[in-house]
Every structure is written in structure tokens, then in C-alpha cells.
Amino acid sequence: MAVDVIADAPKYRLVSADLLRTLMRRTGIGSAVTGRQLARDVGVAHGIIGELLTGARETVPATTAEAIAQRIGVDLLVLFIPSQRADSSRAHLRLTDTA
User: Fold this and answer.
1) What confidence tier does 85 reach under pLDDT thresholds 50, 70, 90?
2) CATH topology of domain 9-98
3) SS3 of residue 29 by DSSP
4) How big is the chain by its Cα radius of gyration, in Å?
């Protein structure tokens, strides 16, 4: 059985597109970064950053999330949460909402 490394890579869910947008306006070094600049610096297609900003994409591989957070100058967990943690917390909310 072949392993798909990309599909099996840990994913991180963006906490908030608004937070990403805000932090892009004033990065950890005090300067703004555009979506295209961020994409170039991180090494991804600019469409991925655009999709994160519009909400069309919610998750990215761990390496991309780490690179975005580093470029912006914040801790990873300020912008992203591990996808499994996000999924399990949603499941917990569904269970408690029905009780």
C-alpha cells in the first residue's frame, strides 16, 4: 500500500481570516505584507493565501502554516490550530449542544 505523504501530512486550520488580514497589515517587524509577497516569501501559490483570506480554504499543511506564522512574526498557534484538535472540539460541541 502506497502512502500519500501530502495527503497524510498534518494540517492546520486558520483561526480567522480577519486575524490573518490584520496581522498582514502590521507584521512582527512592523511592516505590511501583501498576499503576493507573503505567498512568495512562504513558497506557495498566491492563490492559497487568497483562499485563506476569503475563507475558501481553511486548512494548510503544517509546513505552510509554520512558514506563514514565521513570516508574519507570530507564534504558530496565534494563527492556526492543529486540524485534528479543531475537528475534535467541534465534535464535542455537537455532543454538548444536543444534550
Assistant:
1) low
2) 434 Repressor (Amino-terminal Domain) (1.10.260)
3) coil
4) 15
* Nine cell digits for residue 88: 475534535
Residue 5 pLDDT greater than 90, yes or no = no
Q: Which three cell numbers stand for residue 19?
A: 486575524
**CA separation for the pair 41, 98 (Å, rounded):** 45
Instruction: Give the whole-angstrom CA distance, residue 46 versus residue 44.
Output: 6
Domain ranges of the chain: 9-98
- From CA 31, how far away is CA 24, in angstroms rounded? 8
Q: What is the pLDDT of residues 47-65, one digit of tens each?
A: 999 999 999 999 999 999 9
For residue 1, give the DSSP letter.
-
The alpha-helical segments, DSSP class H, found in 17-75 are: 17-25, 35-42, 46-54, 62-72
Q: Which helix (H) or strand (E) holds 13?
A: strand 11-14
Query: In this structure, are residues 50 and 60 in contact, taking their beta carbons and an 8 Å threshold?
Result: no
